[in-house]
């Protein structure tokens, strides 16, 4: 009985949905398929307002005549997750899809007539995770175009006519995991085109016109799969690849270089390349297999003729058809001997005349360039001298200052500074070698009680502070005014001396006259007495 009721319920639901499905569509509970019905913009609006789409998760509108998709007309499609508008007549992306139908996460506008997309065309696309824009007529992807698609995880842009990916192409696409530019006309990719997409895992660049890549173009990614089939590559910059799987099928590669890879891949596809099979290729393959027995490599030899079409793994590597060893690639020079260290490495045994990893340098110590009994030490392509006591310099050619003799005069102390010296002078001396006597220190060159004063502390220059009217470098010159004063003083002194002399003469004469008078007075008296 319960089973019978369930069947009736299912029939009723399907019947109800059939009754409310637009006539141009086939409707199930989760999917409305309205493709290939020549639906134009007017009919599209009728479909939007017909039926009960509350449970529909997919709306298929492929292969019609739609030129505009008004998202605001589909707001009642509240469960819708996928909208497919491929193979219509759209010339630009419909506006504000996430604003009006926030549940949609995959939006397909492939195979339309869209020739240009700007950043603002994706306003209101914040909930879109998967975007199909392949097989339009796009010629460029402008920088920052995905900034409004914060949740974008996958973009399929193959089979357009895009010629270049500029710096900032993936700005804003921090959550992007997978993007495909297969089948475009790419001839150039700028270094920072992918820089912002740090979570990118899958990158498809096959069937383009690329001949080279800028160094570091994938530096911010740890790709799981990188496909660059059917381009025109012949070489790559160092550390280009850090992907687990690299597909380089159908390019123009003749060899394989270890330095192309920042990370050893697990899978490497080289089919349809003109590979030259030799021990260099064998050695590179050995490098990839070392520590990774599960490494897979695919490709065939183009040259030499006796290896043409041979499988590079089965014939060149696994059976070692060329009998390659580490020494097969040795770069040992100057008749040195190659010695195998292990499968990947070798060493060069040099003669005494040579040195270096490959014996490529002359033995710089062969004729000991070190002077004064210095010891020569070999360092790669050059040498270093271990100097004996008292010497320094590249070749021990410089005698250490202060070591064997003291250049400092007048009891100065010699101090060594690397390969030169400085003198610590004793009191009263200065100069590089204490050869200069400090001014005024030991004697006073200033005459006539002049005071000696040094001009500075680093030279023997001085000046005399003269007194008493003297001037000149050493106070040796008497001034004119002083001379006149001295003349007057001398004159005064002479006049004074003359006056003193005159006074003395007068006093002398006066005394003499006095004595004569006394004698005259005494003479009559004595006569009288005698009488």
TrEMBL record:
<keyword id="KW-1133">Transmembrane helix</keyword>
<dbReference type="Pfam" id="PF00560">
    <property type="entry name" value="LRR_1"/>
</dbReference>
<dbReference type="Pfam" id="PF13855">
    <property type="entry name" value="LRR_8"/>
</dbReference>
<dbReference type="InterPro" id="IPR001881">
    <property type="entry name" value="EGF-like_Ca-bd_dom"/>
</dbReference>
<dbReference type="InterPro" id="IPR003591">
    <property type="entry name" value="Leu-rich_rpt_typical-subtyp"/>
</dbReference>
<dbReference type="InterPro" id="IPR001611">
    <property type="entry name" value="Leu-rich_rpt"/>
</dbReference>
<keyword id="KW-0964">Secreted</keyword>
<feature type="transmembrane region" description="Helical">
    <location>
        <begin position="486"/>
        <end position="509"/>
    </location>
</feature>
<dbReference type="InterPro" id="IPR000742">
    <property type="entry name" value="EGF"/>
</dbReference>
<keyword id="KW-0677">Repeat</keyword>
<dbReference type="GO" id="GO:0005509">
    <property type="term" value="F:calcium ion binding"/>
</dbReference>
<feature type="domain" description="EGF-like">
    <location>
        <begin position="398"/>
        <end position="435"/>
    </location>
</feature>
<dbReference type="Pfam" id="PF00008">
    <property type="entry name" value="EGF"/>
</dbReference>
<feature type="disulfide bond">
    <location>
        <begin position="425"/>
        <end position="434"/>
    </location>
</feature>
<feature type="domain" description="EGF-like">
    <location>
        <begin position="325"/>
        <end position="360"/>
    </location>
</feature>
<dbReference type="GO" id="GO:0005615">
    <property type="term" value="C:extracellular space"/>
</dbReference>
<keyword id="KW-0245">EGF-like domain</keyword>
<dbReference type="InterPro" id="IPR050328">
    <property type="entry name" value="Dev_Immune_Receptor"/>
</dbReference>
<keyword id="KW-0433">Leucine-rich repeat</keyword>
<feature type="disulfide bond">
    <location>
        <begin position="387"/>
        <end position="396"/>
    </location>
</feature>
<feature type="disulfide bond">
    <location>
        <begin position="466"/>
        <end position="475"/>
    </location>
</feature>
<dbReference type="InterPro" id="IPR032675">
    <property type="entry name" value="LRR_dom_sf"/>
</dbReference>
<keyword id="KW-0106">Calcium</keyword>
<keyword id="KW-0472">Membrane</keyword>
<dbReference type="GO" id="GO:0031012">
    <property type="term" value="C:extracellular matrix"/>
</dbReference>
<feature type="disulfide bond">
    <location>
        <begin position="350"/>
        <end position="359"/>
    </location>
</feature>
<keyword id="KW-0812">Transmembrane</keyword>
<keyword id="KW-1015">Disulfide bond</keyword>
<feature type="domain" description="EGF-like">
    <location>
        <begin position="361"/>
        <end position="397"/>
    </location>
</feature>
<keyword id="KW-0732">Signal</keyword>
<feature type="domain" description="EGF-like">
    <location>
        <begin position="436"/>
        <end position="476"/>
    </location>
</feature>
<feature type="signal peptide">
    <location>
        <begin position="1"/>
        <end position="18"/>
    </location>
</feature>
<protein>
    <recommendedName>
        <fullName>EGF-like domain-containing protein</fullName>
    </recommendedName>
</protein>
